[in-house]
User: What shape does this take?
Amino acid sequence: MAKDGKTLVVFFSHAGDNYAVGDIKVGNTKIMADYITEFAGAEQFEIVTHKYDGMAYNPLIKLAKEEARKGELPEYEGDVDLSKYDTVFIGGPIWWGTYPQVMFTFFKKHANDLKGKTVIPFTTHEGSGLASCVEDVKAAFPGANVQKGFSIYGHDVRTGKEKVEKWLRGLGF
Assistant: This one.
């Protein structure tokens, strides 16, 4: 798929209090993004917001639901030039049926930057699979070649490196 082109992994991950895995120092999606980065020889851009830092799980999901309901677009730090990449993986946890709202801030800012590029969604979850992420990425990036994507349970990600690598081999990496 992108063996001859440059690949980027864009992701948001939440460390701290998480469902099913407790208080973690490294978020589930970060671990998966690291697997992809290593296996595909990709670069990374982590979407970082401090809005959710230190929040316990229950208040966090309440805030996430409210953000989704209101269509809020939280700010994030830094940015990346997507023009240098042929393939872009886009990943995050599932919060209320899709990516966290901060991902949609990134999508809005870069809506026209992925035309003609291969975009591959991925998620970590505790029962939602890909939820509506593939459809949301297709809507956010018209003209991109959006692939089916991949999801893994957050509680399985620390032992799931082989599953991720099998998926990547299936994509041609």
In short: The chain has one domain: 7-170. The longest strand covers residues 118-125. The helical segments are 28-40, 57-70, 101-109, 133-140, 161-170. The chain has a mean pLDDT of 92.
